[in-house]
Amino acid sequence: MDDSRITELLFARDETALTELSEKYGRYCKSIALNVLGSREDSEECFADALEKVWQRIPPARPGDLKLYLARITRYIAVSRLRMLRAEKRGGGSTAGAMEELDEIASPGSPEEELDALEMRRLINGFVSSLEERQRYAFVRRYWFLESSEQIGSALGMKPGSVDTMLCRIRKDLRKYLKKEGYEL
């Protein structure tokens, strides 16, 4: 079933839409949550929560890209759950490191800086779009999908250490770029 038909079902409050979303995008969204949380059970719960959010938000929302909309909600829920788990355990899994790598650069530290979050997002998006394709792929796979260096390296035909080095250089370039744009880090 195509996305426009699924959206119509959501607007009609037909629960068949949730089944269709699950069949069409469940595997994709669960893999995003699994990369964040490292637990199949937690990824299943995150996806169920994401379906509930979609049900609550559509209508009135009418997303242009249903797959991306559902993926963003799933990722947000998974990251929120990871933060909660980290706060409880004061630890973290392998994906926690990816989030902390970027937090060093772009995380707001005070209420005043939080007001700049939208501008920061715009700047980061601009920076990422300026990267060459291979760098952009690695950056997005690491910091959006929270994949390991091994997974990224396998897809790019690189050693994990080379991926780590490339990502380190990208973070340094991002830090320089943000400083140039007026952000003191």
Shape: globular
Q: How large is the radius of gyration?
A: 18 Å
The ordered H/E elements are: HHHHHHHHHH
Total beta strand runs: 0
Measured by DSSP, the beta-strand proportion falls in under 5%
Name of the level-1 CATH class of the largest domain: Mainly Alpha
The CATH architecture of the largest domain is Orthogonal Bundle
Major sheet characteristics: none
**What fraction, in percent, of the residue positions are helical?**
over 70%
Give the mean pLDDT.
84
Distance between the termini: 47 Å
Provide the CATH topology of the largest domain: Rna Polymerase Sigma Factor, Chain: A
> In terms of structural class, how would the helical and strand content be classed?
mainly alpha
Oligomer category:
single chain
The count of domains is 2
Low-pLDDT regions:
104-115
The number of helical elements comes to: 10
List the helices and strands and how they pair.
Layout: H1 3-11, H2 16-37, H3 40-57, H4 66-89, H5 94-106, H6 111-114, H7 117-130, H8 133-143, H9 149-156, H10 160-180
